[in-house]
Design goal:
This protein has three helices and four strands. The chain is an alpha+beta fold. It has one domain: 2-Layer Sandwich (Ribosomal Protein S5, domain 2). Helix 2 links the parallel strand 3 and strand 4.
Length: 112
């Protein structure tokens, strides 16, 4: 489970990353990365209603991404705020595919 310290919760933080963050894209998701003044990484996830109208589906995708992030947290370079934005294509993908795509995007962003 991802600690509360490692989560982005305030709209102000999301907006700052969205405006000033570096973007890296994959086929199913995009990340925006911005250096923070902390020694930890923080994660924010955006899964819009374009993905699915059902909250159950959107929450499942968020749980998968949070779990993947918590597994890779110690391999990532510290001190970044990371926002994951999902594309509608992610809806029908399996866990393994999402994991591979997320790791690929982290490598593009030079976080691994």
């Amino acid at each position: 489970m991802l600690s509360r310290l490692n989560r982005l919760t305030r709209n102000k933080d999301f907006q700052r990353i969205y405006d000033h963050g570096q973007t890296c894209r994959g086929p199913y998701l995009m990340i925006k990365v911005l250096k923070n003044e902390l020694s930890i990484n923080r994660l924010g996830i955006v899964v819009s209603k374009k993905i699915s109208k059902k909250a159950v589906t959107r929450n499942k995708i968020k749980r998968w991404i949070r779990y993947l992030f918590s597994q890779e947290l110690f391999q990532l370079r510290p001190g970044y705020d990371i926002m994951v934005i999902t594309y509608p294509k992610i809806r029908n993908q399996e866990y393994k595919t999402i994991k591979e795509n997320l790791m690929e995007v982290f490598k593009k962003a030079k976080l691994l």
